Amino acid sequence: MQTYANPCRSVLYIPGSKPRALEKAQGLAVDAIIFDLEDAVSPDEKVSARRLLADTLRHAEYGPRRRIVRINGFDTEWGVDDLTALAAAAPDAILLPKVNSADDIARLAQMLDGTPQAKDTTIWAMMETPRGILNAAEIAAAPRMEGFVLGTNDLAKDLRSTGRAAMLTSLQLCLLAARAEGLICVDGVYNAFKDEDGLRRECAEGRDMGFDGKTLIHPAQIAIANEVFGPSETELELARRQIAAFEKAQAAGQGVAVLDGKIVENLHVASAQRILAQAEAIARLEG
Ligand code: COA
Ligand code: MG
Question: What is the mean pLDDT of the chain?
Answer without folding.
Answer: 96
